[in-house]
Write a structure and sequence with these properties.
Blueprint lengths: L20 E6 L1 H12 L3 E4 L8 H12 L10 E3 L2 E3 L12 H21 L2 E6 L3 E5 L5 E2 L10 E5 L2 H18 L4 E6 L9 H21 L3 E3 L2 H9 L14 H15 L2 H17 L9 H20 L6 H11 L1
Helix pairs in contact: 2-3, 2-4, 4-5, 6-7, 8-9, 9-10
């Protein structure tokens, strides 16, 4: 063994271009991937309910958006002066009831339009363990630090996940047969559930994703989980909490995602955009000198060429940045 590591091979499985409109749902890894897609010039609607850890909350959220079911005051709860819903992450909560509801409604309308206009979904499952309201049995997306006695903890099984997703996705594909769906299992471990319980949970998620990919040709699996836990497999590639992937690990996974989802032309466009963003981080010693003005003109010319090559890109922010240097 010369490499002393397990190399995970990631083959091209799907073709995304900057003309695609992407919506992401799921765990905080979905946020990481969504941010990278956004920085790379893609049109992305990210986690419209905030971070959702379990697949049941993801599909229930998508259903709500797909069928245009609005949120009302009846969906809100109040706990210790904060208002929120059991379908949203606590980042949507606040002390002003009307403002919380308005924010939730606006984001839902925006996300509903994005979902119906999407050409690609990215779904990231984090854990099969769920919390349900003890009174109703309804699975919640977040417990919002409420007392434990209000909830019942259980683990979803593979058949349950597959049944819900097969029904919902079947209806979506009737309207959008060409919709592309990328599924991942988050490589982030949920050790608060226990090490063995986390292993069982991830196994359930993998089996469910595999069954869904077999049922629907529009679904493909991206092995983010395997890239971190098998390929990198070293605590050097984790943050200080030893749970979340480090920036180096995220960059490594992203590079494989590029081979998985982008053709050569799209990868070249992303690289050119990355160079422009790096140029925007440049801080000159003498902002008004001729060299810096030429630097700005050079990047404006590069932006013009990039816009011509890829009209779908929104380069207003980058163009405004370099134009401001010249004015």
């Amino acid at each position: 063994m010369d490499d002393f590591r397990t190399l995970v091979t990631v083959s091209p499985m799907i073709s995304l271009t900057h003309a695609d409109r992407i919506v992401t749902f799921g765990s905080c890894f979905a946020d990481r991937l969504g941010n990278l897609l956004d920085q790379s010039g893609f049109s992305v609607e990210q986690n419209p309910f905030g971070v959702l850890y379990n697949p049941m909350s993801v599909v229930k959220g998508m259903e709500r958006l797909w069928y245009g079911l609005s949120f009302t005051e009846e969906d809100l709860f109040e706990y210790q002066g904060y208002y929120g819903t059991f379908m949203h992450h606590s980042s949507f909560s606040g002390t002003d009831r009307a403002q919380v509801l308005d924010n939730i409604q606006r984001r839902a309308r925006q996300a509903s339009l994005a979902l119906h206009g999407a050409t690609c979904l990215v779904l990231t499952f984090g854990t099969a363990w769920v919390y349900a309201l003890a009174e109703t049995g309804r699975v919640v997306a977040n417990c919002h630090k409420m007392p434990d006695y209000l909830f019942v903890r259980r683990r979803l099984d593979t058949a349950e996940i597959v049944e819900y997703y097969a029904e919902f996705l079947g209806q979506v594909f009737e309207e959008k047969p060409d919709l592309k769906v990328i599924m991942t299992v988050s490589p982030i471990r949920y050790l608060k559930d226990g090490a063995h319980e986390n292993t069982l949970s991830k196994s359930v998620l993998h089996l469910a994703v595999e069954e869904l990919c077999l049922r629907f040709p529009q679904l493909v699996y991206f092995p983010a989980y395997e890239l971190l836990t098998d390929d990198l497999r070293d605590y050097r590639f984790y943050d200080d909490d030893l749970i979340h992937p480090s920036q180096a690990a995220v960059r490594y996974i992203w590079s494989h995602f590029g081979n998985f989802a982008f053709d050569k032309t799209t990868r070249e466009i992303i690289q050119q955009l990355e160079q422009i963003h790096k140029a925007m981080e440049h801080r000159p010693f003498h902002p008004g000198d001729e060299a810096y003005l030429r630097f700005a003109q050079k990047n404006l010319a590069a932006l013009s060429l990039l816009q011509h090559r890829c009209p779908e890109l929104d380069l207003k922010k980058e163009t405004a940045f370099f134009t401001a240097i010249l004015t």
